[in-house]
Amino acid sequence: MTVFLVIIYTGISLCFLSYGCHQCALIYLFARTRRDRTPLTLSEDRSDAERQLRTDDALPHVTVQIPIYNERFTVHRIVHAVSALDYPADRLQIQILDDSTDDTRTIAQQAVEHARQAGTNITLIHRDNRMGYKAGALEAGLASATGEFIAIFDADFVPPKHVIRRIICDDRVFDDPRVGFVQTRWSYLNRNENFITRAQALMMDMHFFIEQPARNRNGLMINFNGSGGMWRRECIRNAGGWQHDTLTEDLDLSYRAEIKGWRGVYIPDIEAPNDLPSDVTAFKRQQRRWSRGSAQCVRKLIPRIIASHLTHVQKLAAVLHVTGYFLHPLMLLTVIVWPPLLLHFDSLVYLIVVQTLLTVIGVGPILGMYIAQRLQGRTTWQFLKDLPGALALGLGISFANSIAVATGLFSGKSGEFERTPKRGGNTTTDSTPAGHISGPHQAETKQSPTMVQSYKLPLHWTILGEIGLAAYSFITLAVLLDRGLRFWALPMISYGCVFTAVVIMQLSILCRSARQMVGNIDTGDLVLASERT
């Protein structure tokens, strides 16, 4: 038993060490190439005439695809934003790819008709089934797309009006025929809504400010993030098209394209504003989908990566990238294995070495998050205020994500693409005020309590595992304290508090929703009684 526990915990520590070194390497690569602001060096075979700024008549045709599914609160906003894009109207096609099953379809039709009357080349493509989910909708849209390049924005995004012209005309990234896709940097409309959105932004900023630039500037594979970017249509087709055997079709296609020899380009200077999940239940749903999809890509892509033409360094970086969500099972195993290890193994030297190693490893991600905040002009105090929430969220969803990773690895089914509900915040971008609706149908997207209630998510069964982990942490804490292991028992306090907090937040959302539902019913009864009187 003791030998088994030591082997397991040593293996966990070595895996953490691998990911920690990878994170530190990305920070180093970012620092080394930080001053390089050129999105891409144009290929040497481009003539001076081809490098000159294009006139509007010479610009390529672009199709903008907006996949939506039951997004009544954001569909008007995204239609208004893409209708205002600064690009020649005769070379811009907009597709609203709607799989909705609620009144979003009607709202979208009204918004599209209003935009069409204003002169926008926009169409609504509605599917009666969700075959292939988002990947299926994008693939279906390509059948009638006229663009040489395909820009993609999810329903909760508000693309700046200059985004296409910046990519095509200013940065000229697609002048290099090897470039298959471009990804811009996400920013967050509701970053300061609550501590959950601030914690998410802290974690996501590390990816968009540190990891993506570091990979892109140093010849490593990058991933398309699903929204806020543009594809060369030829690249999509050459790489095998949008496939729906994973829930992360973006990661899947971008890696298949790069294995084929295409290049991805990341442009940090162009923002793609969007909404973050505003409560822990929605955040868990989003992360479960990303975790399961990433694990499916591990099964699908890693054999191709290993067999590809990439260098050994590129392959190693790609494997560590694709398996990033494996950190959650590692965190979960740490919580479970640590107490019995303390009870059965009394080597003080081993415990000190392992704990010191894990502490040092944790410096990498924290440093990355800190650098990303400083690059935005945020203060150290703002970072320290949000850091506990980010660390707690990462640990608190480890059980749900671990289940999702295991399902993605061992289940032959792709699973359902569960949407993350977004409400659209009262925020502002350079494109349009968020939540503002232009045109005669503004009132139809008013967020009434009943409509908001219909988008509330039910509790997921993984809350039972989080309750069990909270109980396990406090019970083992009591046992360890009884054995006199006070110092080594300290991590169990934080584990227990984190899982308890995650459970309480989910239950509080459920209780608040129940109270709102009762209030809505009572209000409806009063209205009906008044009408009868």
Keywords, please?
533 residues, disordered C terminus, 56% helix, alpha/beta, seven-stranded mixed sheet, single chain
**Range of helix content:** 55-70%
Structural class per helix/strand content?
alpha/beta
Q: State the distance separating the first and last CA atoms.
A: 76 Å
Compute the CA-based radius of gyration: 25 Å
**Major beta sheet, strand line-up:** 3-2-1-4-6-5-7
What does this structure look like?
With 533 residues, this protein is an alpha/beta fold. Among the domains are: 1-35 and 176-425, no CATH class; 462-532. 56% of the residues lie in helices and 9% in strands. It has 19 helices and seven strands. The chain has helices at 2-32, 48-51, 75-83, 104-117, 133-142, 163-170, 195-217, 233-238, 249-259, 280-306, 312-322, 327-344, 348-361, 363-375, 380-396, 398-410, 449-454, 462-482, 490-532, and strands at residues 62-68, 92-98, 122-126, 149-152, 179-188, 229-232, 263-274. It has a seven-stranded mixed sheet with strand order 3-2-1-4-6-5-7, with helices on both faces. Strand 2 (92-98), helix 4 (104-117) and strand 3 form a beta-alpha-beta unit. It is globular. It starts with a helix and ends with a helix. Residues 39-52, 426-445 and 525-533 have low confidence and may be disordered.
